[in-house]
Amino acid sequence: MTLHFDDNRWGAALEPEEISRLEERFIKVTAGREALRPLAEGNEPSNAVNELFARSVPHEGAPETRADDPDLGAGAIEDDSALGAGTIEEARKSLARGELSSLELVSSHLERATSFESLHAFITLSEERALEHARRADEAQAAGKTLGPLHGIPISAKDIVHSKGVRTTSGSKIHENFVPERDAPCLTALTDAGAVLVGKTNLHEFAFGVTSINPHYGAVENPWSSDGARISGGSSGGSAAALAAGIGLGSLGSDTAGSIRIPAALCGVVGLKPTYGAVSRDGVTPLSWSLDHVGPMGKTVSDVSILYDVLTGTETRASLRRDPRGLTLGVHERYFFDNLAPEVQNAVEVAIEALANLGLTRVSMDVPEIAVQSACRNAIAFSEAAAFHADNVRARPFDYGADTLELLRTGLLVSAADYVTARRARVALVRAFYRAFDGVDVLATPATVAASCPVGAATLDNGEDVRAGLLRMTSPFNTVGFPAVSVPCGFTTDGRPIGLQLVAKPGEEAVLLRVAHAYERSQSFRLRRPVI
Predict the structure, then answer these.
(1) Is 522 among the residues known to form the active site?
(2) Is residue 402 predicted with pLDDT exceeding 90?
(3) What is the DSSP letter of 84?
(4) 177 — pLDDT class (breaks 50, 70, 90)
(5) How far is Cα 123 from Cα 442, in angstroms, rounded to an integer?
(6) Residue 259 annotated in active site
(7) What are the pLDDT digits (tens) for 153-166?
(8) Which of these, 188, 283, 402, 527, could form a disulfide with 162 (CB 3.0-4.6 Å)?
(9) DSSP 8-state symbol, 526
């Protein structure tokens, strides 16, 4: 294919070195596209993907359980008293008992955010709004009323989630002064349940990256860094770093190819990418309409379950007390265990053994088509991102960071034919994953191929390129829309967190969180906190 650089879509004349980089990037992004064509033949356009999901995504009611499902007992839902007031569960108890007020709780989190400004976890703190809402929560409490399951709980939101009266920059200079007139529905769901927004978290510019090194608002630093600044992961890096630093008890993130799970893994917190479409994306600045997911992040699986239930009207938390014994655990060794950093491989293998000891039956599984998922994802993500940004790329190219601008310009080079082929091939990939999950309840994989690397590093511990390496474990489940969660499963010898990824079929978040919670309870990783 001959690439043309002589039209006006670039917004400025390109220098020879820029053209060379774009050509190199284009070759990487479109690698494997020929293999998509056989998958695309005979498949309906990608609305068929939505139809596949719609048959499974729950929208109301409690999860189904079998009559013979064993019960873990009254203590199965974690009593977080050992964790202090650092979790939603413990804070709810303290607020209900009158041991602290929401105003005190929220004020302490705002103060902590100010104390750790050097992490660059936040772009904007919403002090005025937060303190007002905290006072309302306390007034309701004094009147004997509860606002909901998140009454008085401080949370944060990734700065692509629209927030009324609080600027939403999307991590960009382009939107630096944008102040929405209403909250996004996902944020409304949380605040209607009593949550208090303390601030908007930093991210990779326009969510188009995995490091959260932001040229406009600073590089988000991992609170677990002990030997110089390390990346928090991205693009929801500020959300994960804030939670790890003890700022906010939950956060809203977005995930297009791993942007919730990657930073959750690198920062030692829990992040859930729900089934595609399970949480509204309305009012969330898009990266790729076909691949974007919105989901909760927290310090424990129980907290994430509470947030998810509020976001979707489901009752996954009721499933946490169910024993996972008898469920089937899939292990996909090819691809997911290729070229891992040794400490990550060891930690995940130990975690899989722990799951087997909890009574899950291990089985091998394989999806041959997984080899082409990255080509499918790239054609869709780059095309859709370029379409959303085309006018600004042309009119305001120099207001973008260099890496984001190069990615968007690369997207403008992807042909309509390749985009349509990828959309049709995606249907075949979804069906292939459904077949592979036949008889498998949960798949276990590493969340990332390696732990956090230094800010500015080109490669990870396993020698892989940072962007490609961090996306490799997570992106298949955006391509097919299956729910996936990252849970801490260990640390490197120098103290960097390692994440375990668990995946289930669409609509099976209750089963997914049930297994994640049982694993979390069997380990002590959740008790560790960074020394910052």
Answers:
(1) no
(2) yes
(3) -
(4) very high
(5) 36
(6) yes
(7) 999 999 999 999 99
(8) 283
(9) G
- Pick the catalytic residue from 102, 126, 158, 302: 158
CB–CB of 486/499 below 8 Å?
yes
Q: How far apart are CA 29 and CA 40, in angstroms?
A: 18
pLDDT at 488: 98
Q: Among this protein's residues, is 235 annotated catalytic?
A: yes
Torsion of CA 465, 466, 468, 470, to 10 degrees: 140
**In 476-505, which positions are buried (b, 16+ CB within 10 angstroms) versus exposed (e)?**
bbbbbbbbbbbbbbbbbeeebbbbbbbbbb
The tens digit of pLDDT for each residue in 215-264 reads 999 999 999 997 789 999 999 999 999 999 999 999 999 999 999 999 99
- The single residue of 156, 235, 254, 383 carrying the catalytic annotation is 235
* Rounded distance between C-alpha atoms, residue 232 and residue 116, angstroms: 14
For 414-421, the CB contacts below 8 A with 24+ separation are 414/26, 414/29, 414/30, 414/378, 414/379, 414/382, 414/383, 414/386, 415/1, 418/30, 418/33, 418/36, 418/379, 418/383, 419/379, 419/380, 419/383, 420/40, 420/45, 421/33, 421/36, 421/37, 421/40, 421/379
The residue annotated as part of the active site, out of 259, 302, 319, 374, is 259
